[in-house]
Design goal:
This protein has 460 residues and is mainly alpha-helical. The protein has one domain. The protein contains 17 helices and four strands. The protein is globular and about 60 Å long. It is a multi-pass membrane protein. It holds the Pfam family Wzy_C.
């Protein structure tokens, strides 16, 4: 039995990562209070992943102390610093809050999403093959969710949007309208990276399939009506196109423009709704979209909340409690949610829909500097390794992983300007941050990027 498991690759540490991605397809349980399910299957999967990697890490250290062969790699000082600094900041802001007990669930959530799961993925991905398996799983998830979303939009069984149930949300449901958009955008970016920068020795069919998948995912991304996902996808794709040169960039932009004209103008796919949604991004003064007004009002409230406690904020999960005290009167009492199997309900506005302002208001300068410093370090290291891999051309067999991971980091940094954490899809964000962490900090990725021989038993 053990040899059969090893032959199938089921003993690889990446397996729990792939299982967690698959669990994201499970429809949420909307029978709980307020229609929310609390702990989701993906949360449980991420917990198993963290425990799996923690056990492997402890076993590796035990064997290292006894002089045995090191079967699992350990964290490098750089990785420990990047993951440890936010941990310390989260702990400080939780203890310093007015009600540490009420802030404790927020501390655990931040720790799960930005430290434990990314760190577990860093340890689980042993080489480029594992990274490609994770990328493939995300693309498959995107295609499945995107396909369901297109059917929802076409048959009027999606989430409610402007009085019609035409918003594509996949299996994530109307209570997590960003879920499918995030998954589809991730898949689109990864597929485009694989198509533009295919791995060395890839079969001839891989590139057209990857580019075709990226093109197919444009439709469900558009039908998600998610402005944040649209805005974040643009710079991520431009980065990937820039890796191929100016000519490819111009040709790709022309092709996308032509496809958009044919899709929206020729076939009339949600023409009016898409035009209104795009226009609402910049409408602030004349006749702004209600959601845009609420968003900017929440941003202002978050800034005022931060000024109340500049150093450590009001504590994790403290934004809703202080929101009404600092928000303007025009703020809505909640957002409407309906469709895709969910009866009409008003969802409370629990965050400012801007991750940076959420952290600033709840964790002050301590949490903001630590978290943004960690993300900045990841992005800088990822870009440097991508540059090293690109300079070696086709001789570097891991350029596809680097391009996908770096573009996803760019996507996430931009998306956090227009969104934050929440809902079952947040676990996918943690897994993607883990992929970026692996590319930025893993010595195995560095060896591949610089075409150096792999070093056995090295730390990550």
């Amino acid at each position: 039995m053990g040899s059969a498991v090893r032959r199938c690759g089921l003993d690889r540490p990446v397996v729990p990562v792939l299982v967690t991605v698959g669990l994201l397809c499970a429809p949420p349980d909307t029978t709980g209070p307020g229609g929310h399910s609390g702990v989701t299957p993906a949360d449980l999967g991420s917990g198993v992943l963290v425990v799996w990697c923690a056990i492997g890490l402890l076993r590796g250290r035990a064997r290292q102390r006894t002089g045995g062969r090191l079967p699992h790699r350990t964290l490098t000082p750089r990785a420990a610093l990047v993951l440890g600094a936010p941990t310390a900041a989260f702990a400080v802001t939780t203890v310093a809050s007015a009600d540490p007990a009420a802030s404790l669930p927020g501390f655990v959530r931040y720790l799960q999403l930005f430290v434990l799961v990314p760190g577990a993925v860093l340890l689980a991905l042993r080489d480029a093959r594992d990274a490609r398996l994770l990328c493939g799983a995300v693309v498959l998830l995107a295609l499945v969710e995107g396909g369901i979303g297109v059917v929802q939009a076409a048959t009027g069984t999606g989430a409610s949007y402007q009085g019609e149930e035409v918003r594509a949300v996949g299996t994530f449901g109307a209570l997590d309208v960003m879920g499918m958009a995030t998954a589809v955008a991730y898949g689109l970016v990864i597929a485009l990276a694989c198509g533009l920068v295919p791995p060395a020795g890839a079969p001839r069919w891989l590139r057209p399939c990857a580019l075709g998948s990226a093109a197919v995912l444009v439709l469900p991304l558009a039908l998600s009506y998610s402005r944040g996902a649209w805005l974040a996808t643009v710079p991520a794709c431009l980065l990937l196109l820039a890796l191929r040169g100016i000519r490819t960039t111009v040709c790709a932009l022309a092709a996308v423009t032509a496809a958009g004209v044919v899709l929206v103008g020729g076939f009339g796919v949600a023409t009016q709704e898409l035009a209104q949604r795009v226009g609402s991004i910049t409408e602030v003064s004349a006749s702004p979209d209600r959601s845009v007004t609420d968003r900017y009002t929440l941003w202002s409230a978050a800034t005022d909340i931060w000024q109340q406690a500049p150093a450590t904020g009001v504590g994790p999960k403290g934004f809703p409690e202080h929101r009404d005290t600092h928000a303007a009167l025009e703020l809505s009492s909640g957002s409407d949610a309906a469709g895709a199997g969910v009866p009409f309900q008003r969802e409370p506005l629990l965050s400012p829909h801007n991750m940076y302002l959420l952290v600033l208001s709840e964790q002050g300068l301590v949490g903001t500097v630590a978290l943004l410093g960690a993300w900045g370090a990841l992005l800088v290291c990822a870009l440097r390794r991508l540059g090293a891999a690109r300079s070696r051309g086709a001789a570097c067999g891991v350029r596809d992983c680097g391009a996908a991971a770096t573009a996803l980091l760019v996507w996430q940094c931009v998306d956090f300007l227009y969104g934050d954490i929440g809902g079952p899809s947040t676990v996918l964000t943690a897994l993607v941050l883990g992929l970026g962490t692996w590319w930025a900090l893993s010595p195995a990725a560095e060896e591949h990027a610089e075409c150096r021989p792999a070093g056995g038993g090295r730390s990550v």
